[in-house]
Design goal:
Layout (H helix, E strand, L loop, with lengths): L1 H57 L5 H7 L2 H6 L2 E4 L5 H8 L3 E4 L1 H4 L4 H14 L5 E4 L1 E3 L2 E2 L15 H27 L28 H17 L5 E5 L14 E2 L3 H17 L4 E4 L3 E2 L12 H10 L5 E4 L5 H4 L4 H11 L4 E3 L2 H14 L4 H17 L6
Parallel strand pairs: 1-2, 1-11, 2-3, 6-8, 7-9, 8-10
Antiparallel strand pairs: 4-5
Helix pairs in contact: 7-8, 8-9, 12-13
């Protein structure tokens, strides 16, 4: 009996260990099933909270409207200035004024290697809270900033007239795509072309920069270039509305255009209308005084001219001024007043070297109601939409 008792005790011990083992396994399996979702849920909440904090601290809203709502008046006003690159404090001014973009001129690319230009433009983008428009007049022929430096382009960009003579519109389209690829490689996202002016007089100031053909052929050219630039994700700019025609040079004097509005509609407006239909991103307004539209003020600061663009030609993109330093405007109005006047007239971008004195005036006008914040927001939205279309902003 004693031996049998010991055997029974050993057997019961094994049974007890087995039960405890099974119970432990069941407990841990149950614990995994009940606690793991809670842990994962906590992780999801934690991650979501972290993302919300990051979004808030870095001011990266999901939509353009959200971006605008999160911006200060100073930040919004800065976005409306497409500034000529200053001689000094280039990085400091981007940060201080929240500039919407920089326009490169010949002096900004002289003597630079490909790597140096890329690094220079990259430094601008890294300094900016919102990616900048980087513009460069690359019409080809007489007006091409990169062509002044053989280290940047092996062959100068040809003029529209030269390309048209060589192979018509297809040759221009091919050149546009190659040019766009070059611009993109440097970080230039706005080439500030095509020239949509109709000029048939070889003696006219603007003639050599145009296609040199009639309104319909010029319209076909403008539409083709606009579409090619859109495909290549480089911004298009139709210029110089309402159209230079065969007039004089507003770079050096105040120019008055005496043509009738009907003539402008039948000729000069035609390429702009075709370019708008093709999806033009922006239109640049000249400083010419067009007497049949507004006999008192240059087109760039005339509300009537801008009303035609919006209401008659149905353009919804970015409207910008020509260079505010040109005599056609600078001899008409002080630089201090010019920036505000241009925005009040309906421009979305001011191309200026005097942004440091113009921006404070615009901010003050917003604060005292002379420049409605609703109008400011509408212009900022157009500028940010252009940047998004160019792939500069995340959707």
């Amino acid at each position: 009996m004693k031996g049998n008792g010991i055997k029974a005790l050993i057997f019961m011990s094994f049974v007890l260990v087995f039960v405890l083992l099974i119970g432990g396994m069941w407990y841990f399996m149950h614990e995994d099933q009940t606690t793991t979702p809670t842990t994962e849920s906590s992780q999801v909440v934690s991650t979501s909270s972290s993302e919300t904090t990051t979004t808030s601290s870095e001011s990266k809203p999901k939509t353009i409207d959200d971006r605008i709502q999160a911006m200060t008046v100073e930040e919004k006003v800065g976005q409306l200035f497409f500034a000529r690159v200053p001689d000094v404090q280039q990085i400091e001014d981007i940060k201080e004024y929240d500039l919407g973009g920089y326009v490169l001129f010949g002096r900004d690319v002289q003597g630079l290697t490909e790597r140096q230009l890329k690094d220079k433009i990259l430094s601008y983008q890294q300094a900016s809270k919102i990616p900048m428009l980087i513009g460069s007049d690359e019409e080809g022929g007489l007006v091409s900033r990169l062509s002044t430096n053989p280290q940047l382009v092996t062959e100068p960009f040809a003029s529209p007239q030269t390309l048209y003579a060589q192979g018509g519109i297809p040759a221009i389209v091919s050149d546009t795509k190659q040019k766009a690829d070059t611009l993109r490689s440097y970080g230039i996202n706005a080439g500030l072309f095509p020239v949509a002016d109709v000029a048939t007089d070889p003696q006219a100031f603007i003639y050599d920069r145009t296609l040199g053909q009639d309104a319909q052929l010029t319209a076909d050219y403008v539409a083709a270039v606009t579409k090619a630039l859109k495909e290549e994700k480089v911004g298009s700019t139709l210029k110089h509305f309402p159209g230079y025609g065969d007039n004089r040079d507003s770079h050096v004097e105040i120019v008055t255009d005496t043509r009738s509005l009907e003539e402008l509609r039948q000729v000069d407006f035609v390429p702009f209308a075709k370019g708008i239909e093709a999806g033009a991103d922006s239109i640049l307004v000249s400083h010419n005084i067009v007497s049949s539209i507004d006999p008192t003020e240059p087109a760039s600061i005339s509300p009537v001219v801008h009303k035609i663009l919006r209401e008659e030609l149905h353009f919804n993109g970015v409207i910008m001024t020509d260079d505010m330093d040109m005599a056609g405007l600078a001899d008409f109005i002080s630089q201090d007043e010019a920036g505000l006047k241009a925005l009040q007239a309906g421009n979305d971008l001011v191309m200026s070297s005097s942004y440091d004195v113009q921006i404070p005036v615009v901010i003050a006008a917003v604060e005292n109601g002379d420049y409605p914040e609703s109008q400011l927001d509408a212009s900022v939205k157009r500028v940010l939409q252009w940047k998004q279309d160019l792939g500069l902003l995340a959707n």
